[in-house]
């Protein structure tokens, strides 16, 4: 494993602080997309956690959605759950609110506390893989640990 730097090191420190046993793994190839991450790790794409940032239009606040790499988010359903209209956040909004660039946004270690929602489909797996601060880094975590450390509400968010 190569030396961790920047966002990867911040995620590793946060994993340690939160008591999560998983370690940040820097892969030789990109893990930016769910398909790339699954190929790099050697797992099914449904075991990849997509950490997506949406923007609450009414409150101009970030919303973290953790969903399976195999699914798309039903934005209408998300709006119902959060109680107001939402939109996909811009790259600038994501970096300003999380401290990370799109393609490497982890579910933890953000610049501010962010309301989180975890799609129920992730609970079907004993272990899932999430981005770790860069487009080439990931870490393994159980869905239960992910819910605990993000204080995520478990909901049905997959588009049908």
Spatial gap, N to C terminus: 39 Å
Largest beta-sheet details: 8 strands, mixed
Helix share bin: 25-40%
Count of alpha and pi helical runs: 5
From the spread of the alpha carbons, the general shape counts as globular
The named CATH superfamily: YbaK/aminoacyl-tRNA synthetase-associated domain
Task: List the secondary-structure elements in sequence, H or E.
Answer: HEHEEHEHEEEHE
According to CATH, the fold-level topology is: YbaK protein
What integer value in Å does the Rg equal? Answer: 14 Å
Q: Give a count of the beta strands, DSSP E runs of length 2 or more.
A: 8
Task: List low-confidence stretches.
Answer: none
Give the averaged pLDDT, no decimals.
93
Number of domains: 1
The CATH class name reads Alpha Beta
Task: Please characterize this protein's 3D structure.
This protein is α/β, with parallel strands linked by helices and 160 residues long. It has one domain: YbaK protein, CATH 3.90.960.10. The protein contains 5 helices and 8 strands; from the N terminus they run H-E-H-E-E-H-E-H-E-E-E-H-E. Strands 1, 2, 3, 4, 5, 6, 7 and 8 form an 8-stranded mixed β-sheet that branches.
């Amino acid at each position: 494993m190569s030396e961790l730097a920047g966002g990867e090191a911040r995620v590793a420190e946060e994993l340690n602080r939160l008591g999560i046993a998983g370690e940040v793994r820097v892969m030789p190839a990109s893990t930016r997309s769910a398909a790339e991450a699954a190929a790099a790790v050697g797992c099914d794409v449904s075991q990849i956690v997509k950490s997506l940032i949406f923007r609450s239009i009414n409150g101009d606040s970030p919303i973290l959605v953790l969903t399976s790499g195999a699914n798309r988010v039903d934005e209408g359903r998300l709006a119902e759950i959060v109680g107001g209209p939402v939109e996909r956040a811009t790259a600038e909004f994501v970096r300003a609110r999380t401290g990370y660039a799109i393609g490497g946004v982890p579910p933890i270690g953000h610049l501010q506390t962010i309301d989180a929602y975890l799609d129920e489909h992730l609970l079907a797996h004993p272990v899932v893989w999430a981005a770790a601060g860069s487009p080439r880094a990931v870490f393994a975590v159980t869905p239960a640990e992910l819910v605990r450390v993000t204080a995520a509400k478990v909901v049905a968010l997959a588009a049908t």
